[in-house]
Amino acid sequence: MPRPPLVALRDSLCIVAVGMTLLAAAPLALSDGLKQGRQGDYTLVSGGVNRAEVDELEKLAQRYQIQLLFKRQGEKEGVTGVKVRVRNTPGELMVETTSTGPYLYVNPPSGGRYTIEAELDGETLAKTRDLVGRRYLHLEFDFGTGAASK
Fold this sequence. Notes:
Blueprint: H1 5-25, E1 35-39, E2 42-47, H2 51-60, E3 66-72, E4 83-87, E5 93-98, E6 103-107, E7 112-120, E8 123-131, E9 137-143, E10 147-149
Parallel strand pairs: 3-9
Antiparallel strand pairs: 1-2, 2-6, 3-6, 4-5, 4-7, 7-8, 9-10
């Protein structure tokens, strides 16, 4: 006996909903060099050591509100291993990671005031910025010059 049309439609919609949920929960397929992670409610991705990774990061950029670029004396090539800490308004440590390239993107769960500390070869640079609404923070940290610039 064939199923009534509304029952068939309901079953089809349930299957589609389950499939979409599984796709949303799946991690992004990234190139081998990019490192994606999660710390609490914060998602992050790091890399950019070659053109393919930079291209992929450019595609992902809109998903990450905090975008960091690390340089050494004005050059981003070869900059890896930057220790990064992201603190919220009360100063609580929310993210602690090490970059795998000159780029690190972080997507916080909400806006607020964030302090980003970046350390490379014993030099620590820090910036505090407000993230409000749908804004993006694009921050550059230039080691060897003592400058953390916007």
